[in-house]
Structure formats: C-alpha cells, structure tokens
Automatic annotation (TrEMBL):
Location in the cell: Cell membrane
Taxonomic path: unclassified sequences, metagenomes, ecological metagenomes
Membrane disposition: Multi-pass membrane protein
Keywords: Cell membrane, Membrane, Transmembrane, Transmembrane helix
Protein's UniProt keywords contain Membrane: yes
This protein's name: Uncharacterized protein
Chain segments annotated as transmembrane: 12-39, 59-76, 134-154
InterPro entries from the UniProt entry: ArAE_1
Keyword Lyase: no
Length: 324
C-alpha cells in the first residue's frame, strides 16, 4: 500500500465514522447520503482549492436536482389518468433530461452522475417521506462539511507536489510542440488541444503555487525531500517565456520573417534544453541569458535575444502568485 493510498484509507475511515455517527446525533433515519458526500469530497478534492470547488459544485447539483425532482413529483401526482408505473417512468426520464439540460446549457463543471442522481432519489424517496427533498439537502450539506474538515486537517494536501506535477506536464507539452515548431517554424494546427492546455496550465500552476506558498509561510511544510518553491517557479516562468515567444513568432508572416522565425526557433530550443536540464534554481535565468547572448549577432537574432531576455526579467514579478 502506497503512502497516498494509506492516507486516503485513513481519511475514508474517519469520514465514514463521523458520517454514520451524525445520523443519530441529528435524529435522522438510517441513510448513506452523508457518508457518500463526505467520501466524494475527499476523493475528488485532493487539494484545498479542489476540495472547495468540488463541494460547491456538488451542492449546486443537489439544489438543482432537488428542485427538479420535487417539481416533477408534485406535478405528476396530479396526472391521475396515467397508471402509476407510467408516472414513475415519465418523471424519472424527465428528471434525467432536465438535470442534464441544465448542466449542458450552463456548462456546469459537474459530472453527469452527480447531476441526475438527486432528482432520481427525490422521485423515489418522496412517496414514503414528503420531507425527503429537504432532508436530501441536509444530508449532503453535512457530508460535504465533514469531507472538507477531514481533507483540511487529516493528511493535508501537498501543494508542492501538485505544483511540481503541473510543471512537469507543462514541460512535456512544450517538448511536444518544440519539435514541430523547430522544423516547420510554425505551431502545428493539429496540436490545438495541446496549445489550449498550455494556456490553462499557466493559471493552474499560479493557483497551486499560491496555496503552496501559503503552506510554506504559515505552516512551514517545505522539507528537504520536497520540491523547492523558487526553483519550480523559476522553471515555470521560463516555460511561459518560451511559450509566449513561440506564439508571437507564429503570428509573423513566414514569407516576410522566415529568417527571424528560424532564429527564434533555434534560440527557444536551446533555452528550453538548458533550463530543463539545469540543477540549481539560481542558475536558470543566468544560463538562459548567457546562452542567448552567445547567439549570432544578426539584427534579427539581437531583436529576438532582447525580447526573450526581456520576458525573463519581467515575468517573475508578473507571475508571482497573488497574495503571497
């Protein structure tokens, strides 16, 4: 059993115990909804930010689903001309359709299963308990709170490793683009998904690094075995510098600026190779600038060199996570 699996098992155990203990404490009848909500929050919210985002989305799905399910239940109760099995089948189907329509219409970042489960349960359970729609919201709210507390205080998330993982993904995507860019002097259109993900990674790394910096400042969680904050952020800034320059060069006319783009590709390929192999964080910018200034002193090369060095010197302040 890995360390991650062991910590997750302990979290699940604590969350399940507290969830089932909450049933008699709040005077509820036997239900597994509290435990399920707590476990889902732990499963899909491995970081503080992810935990809170998932919790908000889960509760939004409950509110929408319960509203749809309750409206359908009381509406179909008036359709006495239909056999009972027809009322159940039609209301359940409409519950599925309406809940998923809301998800797709408003582009909610919620799984399909999470969206259509609440109306299903409301339609199934309300005939035996007219208060079930309200109880459903109470069950899930309590479970979400339990999941958040367990996530925050039992084996808290390692945001350093999260940031490091995002950085490695960023560098792998850049390597994927660097080859075609060097050969064709243009970004390959077929890699549109890769380029979109690179743009998204910039904000994701910044957000993860904000929480990591908070851990370092307030909880002193940086250890010798973990990644170094300054080194990781220096690599990220240079990754983004390379990516921004690739996009700028790609926007130039190949016919009018072919030599300029070729020089850009050569410089960026060399810079990227140097900084991904560097060992010391403080050498990243120095190595990159030394390599850049050693490029052939053509007018185009000088312009590109100045532009890249400008990015290297300006990006650290701009990319520093907010609030640290």
């Amino acid at each position: 059993m890995t360390k991650t699996e062991r910590s997750r098992l302990i979290k699940f155990t604590i969350a399940a115990y507290i969830s089932f203990l909450a049933i008699p404490v709040f005077g509820f009848k036997t239900t597994t909804s509290i435990a399920f909500s707590a476990i889902f929050v732990i499963t899909y919210g491995s970081t503080r930010r992810g935990c809170l985002e998932y919790s908000v989305n889960r509760m939004l799905a409950q509110v929408v689903g319960v509203a749809i399910g309750t409206a359908l239940y009381f509406t179909f109760q008036t359709f006495t001309f239909l056999p009972s099995y027809q009322r159940v089948a039609l209301s359940m189907t409409l519950g599925l359709v309406l809940s998923l329509y809301v998800k797709y219409r408003f582009h909610l970042p919620i799984a399909e299963f999470t969206m259509f489960t609440p109306p299903f349960l409301v339609l199934l359970m309300t005939p035996g308990n007219s208060y079930y729609p309200l109880l459903r919201l109470a069950y899930c709210s309590i479970g979400v709170v339990i999941g958040i507390l367990v996530n925050f205080f039992v084996y808290p998330a390692d945001h350093g490793k999260e940031t490091q993982g995002l950085l490695e993904r960023e560098e792998n995507l850049l390597r994927q683009l660097m080859g075609p860019f060097s050969q064709e002097l243009a970004l390959p259109p077929e890699e549109a998904k890769v380029m979109k993900e690179l743009d998204l990674l910039e904000s994701q790394i910044t957000l993860a690094a904000t929480e990591w910096k908070s851990d370092i400042t307030h909880h002193k969680r940086r250890t010798k075995e973990g990644p170094d904050y300054e080194r990781v952020m220096a690599r990220h800034r240079l990754n983004q510098a390379c990516w921004k320059m690739m996009k700028q060069a790609d926007g130039l006319s190949l016919q009018d600026h072919g030599a300029f783009r070729a020089q850009c590709a050569a410089i960026l390929r060399s810079v990227f190779a140097v900084h991904t192999q560097a060992e010391a964080a403080e050498n990243h910018a120095l190595d990159a600038e030394a390599l850049l200034t050693a490029q052939p002193a053509t007018q185009e090369g000088c312009l590109m060199t100045a532009a890249v060095i400008g990015y290297l010197r300006l990006l650290p302040a701009a990319a520093e996570p907010a609030g640290v």
